[in-house]
């Protein structure tokens, strides 16, 4: 029976720089002694990992792969752990010594400004490292987008109302980090700045070294941005 073995600790997905050393863990309980065997899958190739018969699987990150662990007992009962993804980033963000990194989210790919015609698809992308792998939440003009919780934000048919400022929050159990804020223009033609235009620079800081993180500056920046735009300002808004 499948209930003869119960997995008590599932392995966890991670997102790490190339060359980073870590361990995948799997724990299970059964009515008789248990045996472990790890498997990996790259693209469509799934294979047994020779010698990987312990509860812990040490890994040196080389390429993005999926992993699972099979647990069986002496009575031919067997269960598989969840499949987990080990995402490997070949380019490490500056100022991130792997030996000192504790797994907190670090943005390695920021979204880019977009100009899209009405009805055309809109796509923004963000990526972050983290142990465990970060989850994502996209924001439009300071408001969370409930359907946009992946690395890639996709809107199949863009509308004028989709114009505005976007940013992404990557978070895990160690904390959160925000991407750069970018402007998206839907159905708008670029206008060259005149020599007499009014320009406003807004800077909102919500992360401090010796002070609890703040959330209000994010919304404040967006609200002030719209107010200044109504007054005829060209606005540049920055976070952290």
TrEMBL record:
**SMART domains from the UniProt entry:** IG (SM00409), IGc2 (SM00408)
Q: Name one GO molecular function term.
A: cysteine-type endopeptidase activity
Occurrences of domain Caspase family p20 (ranges): 198-240
Q: Does the keyword Disulfide bond apply?
A: yes
Please tell me whether the keyword Disulfide bond is annotated for this protein: yes
Q: Which GO terms describe its biological process?
A: proteolysis
The lineage's top-level taxon is: Eukaryota
Q: Which UniProt keywords apply?
A: Disulfide bond, Immunoglobulin domain
According to the entry, every stretch annotated as the Ig-like domain falls at 5-81, 105-185
Q: What InterPro entries does the annotation carry?
A: Caspase-like_dom_sf, Caspase-related_regulators, Ig-like_dom, Ig-like_dom_sf, Ig-like_fold, Ig_sub, Ig_sub2, Pept_C14_caspase
The protein in question is named: MALT1 protein
Q: Which organism is it from?
A: Melospiza melodia
């Amino acid at each position: 029976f499948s209930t003869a073995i119960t997995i008590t600790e599932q392995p966890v997905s991670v997102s790490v720089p190339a060359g980073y050393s870590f361990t995948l863990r799997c724990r299970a309980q059964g009515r008789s002694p248990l045996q472990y065997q790890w498997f990996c899958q790259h693209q469509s190739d799934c294979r047994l990992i020779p010698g990987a018969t312990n509860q812990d699987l040490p890994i040196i990150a080389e390429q993005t792969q999926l992993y699972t662990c099979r647990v069986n007992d002496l009575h031919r009962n067997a269960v598989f752990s969840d499949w987990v993804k080990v995402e490997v980033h070949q380019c490490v963000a500056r100022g991130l010594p792997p030996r000192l990194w504790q797994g907190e989210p670090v943005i390695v790919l920021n979204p880019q400004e977009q100009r899209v015609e009405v009805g055309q698809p809109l796509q923004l992308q963000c990526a972050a490292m983290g142990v465990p792998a970060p989850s994502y939440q996209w924001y439009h003009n300071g408001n969370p987008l409930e359907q946009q919780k992946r690395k890639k934000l996709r809107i199949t048919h863009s509308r004028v109302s989709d114009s505005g400022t976007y940013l992404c929050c990557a978070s895990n159990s160690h904390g959160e980090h925000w991407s750069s804020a970018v402007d998206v223009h839907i159905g708008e033609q670029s206008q060259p700045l005149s020599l007499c235009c009014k320009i406003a620079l807004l800077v909102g800081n919500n992360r401090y070294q010796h002070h609890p993180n703040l959330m209000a500056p994010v919304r404040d920046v967006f609200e002030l941005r719209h107010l200044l735009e109504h007054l005829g300002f060209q606005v540049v808004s920055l976070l952290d």
